[in-house]
From TrEMBL, chains A, B:
InterPro entries: GAF-like_dom_sf (IPR029016), HTH_MetabolicPath_Reg (IPR050707), Tscrpt_reg_IclR_C (IPR014757), Tscrpt_reg_IclR_N (IPR005471), WH-like_DNA-bd_sf (IPR036388), WH_DNA-bd_sf (IPR036390). Pfam families: HTH_IclR, IclR_C. It comes from the Bacteria. Residues 66-250 form the IclR-ED domain. Keywords: DNA-binding, Transcription, Transcription regulation. This is IclR family transcriptional regulator.
Length: 250, 250
DNA sequence: GCATGCGTTCTCATGGGGCGAGAATACTCC
DNA sequence: GGAGTATTCTCGCCCCATGAGAACGCATGC
């Protein structure tokens, strides 16, 4: 499948170490079904490149500093710019709800900022860099609705549409109709399709050409939403508009 | 030098992308002096493994989500346990100074927690995962003094003793004498050897066998230190003692 | 001291597959 | 439609990754 098997293997080893936190050459070998000498070669190469460290005491391997550096570089590159962060934080304050900002990244959809607090915590699986389940999140719907039909098709093809709750939209045609509506309304709602008892809403952020480039979203316990729909939508539009203004300027 | 050149090359490409934030195949090729087709092969393998993404719009390559995952795993593995973090934070509050906690990690010396605030900010280059310049930091001196002579020798051999300020100790024999003193006093001072106008101090944290396993440290503007030396030392000893107690228990 | 076990490295013959020049293709922008 | 650029394909060469097996180093136990 992958052209160069060495590289694939190397990352398999690296990820095996990452997953277990701390492991031995033997464990990696039997887990990945690679002969021991080869595993040692790979591990040593990874150590030489500072992606692993070899703990001499007990002969275990763990992640090395370069792994963290990569993470930092990724974060630095992707973190939403300060005006966007501010708008997201104000949305959080205004609606008393955890707020999110997401963008396209190549073919992907990625969360690049979150604003929450102890009273209004983020949804558990959501974090900076989150890039799954677009079909079941409000910001995902916004960004899916901004794609061309074929982009969206290959996106859903590649990732599938996992069923996360009884309300998750699991059929492409249903989703497609739903996204048309999202697109015309300029707001996406997500009612317990991602997590039980949780509702999200999102609005698009556009650049100078009017193209959708991002999504601003909030999450709330479903019981708190009733009656506030209009207020949520107008706040989303308001702050998404702020973001769009920044996008047009920059 | 590295046995498997493929792996070395692959990481060279990955790091080139990380360093530039966003780059093209051609730039990588001429920067690393690797023929273009080979660069594309490596880039595509990295994309296939989710360590890079290929931005279709402008044909640039950037870091992929797996990079962030690695960073998270590293952080999760290394972050100091909660009692240690609390002790470090209390030291910060007590002395009104940014506080740090560092440990051994294989042959390395790594910062695994920092506690600071706007009034008492951390030293700029210091961050979670920092693992350089042990000869010029207080916590580094503590942990170097806890090594055997040959461990320390090979450590300094491998990393050298870069001169960071006019006061940086740059000779191994001088450092060695200094570390003997540190070891007997049970406190390390660092006076503007790492950053100008900045002074640090550290105390060892020991496990049940009395072996040094960590270092608790503070940094302050040098002008604020005068007259407080005794108070700083006793607070360091106090909270390092708390950490040691935790280490004996765990 | 000798035996045992485990982690790690070495040796070496084999052949899979990585390599890179060059060409071909797929784009985009005038 | 043509020039320029980004990306992939082709293909034969030969390098070097591979893995079985053995050897080494270093514990611990008897």
């Amino acid at each position: 499948m992958a052209t160069t098997s060495v590289i694939h293997r190397t990352f398999a080893v690296l990820e095996a170490v990452a997953a277990s936190g701390s492991t031995t050459a033997k464990e990696v070998a039997q887990q990945l079904e690679i002969p021991l000498p080869s595993v040692y070669r790979l591990l040593n190469d990874l150590v030489a490149n500072q992606y692993l460290v070899h703990l001499k005491d007990d002969g275990r391997f763990e992640l090395g500093p370069k792994c963290f550096d990569l993470g930092l570089s990724f974060r630095q590159r992707l973190l939403a710019p300060s005006p966007i962060r501010q708008a997201t934080a104000e949305l959080h304050r205004t609606l008393q709800a955890a707020s999110y900002f997401a963008v396209y990244r190549g073919a992907d959809i990625v969360l690049t900022y979150l604003s929450d607090c102890d009273q209004h915590p983020r949804l558990r699986p959501l974090r900076f860099g989150f890039h799954e389940a677009a079909h079941a999140t409000a910001f995902g719907k916004i960004l899916l609705s901004g794609m061309t039909a074929e982009q969206r098709g290959s996106y859903l093809e590649a990732r599938g549409m996992p069923i996360l709750t009884p309300h998750t939209i699991a059929r492409q045609d249903v989703l497609s109709d739903h996204l048309d509506e999202v697109s015309t309304r300029g707001i996406a709602w997500e009612h317990e399709e991602f997590l039980p008892r949780t509702t999200c809403a999102a609005a698009p952020v556009r650049n100078g050409s009017g193209m959708c480039v991002g999504a601003l979203a909030v999450s709330m316990p479903s019981r708190k939403v009733t009656g506030l729909e209009a207020r949520i939508e107008s706040a989303l539009r308001e702050y998404a508009g702020q973001c769009s203004r920044y996008m047009r300027a920059g």
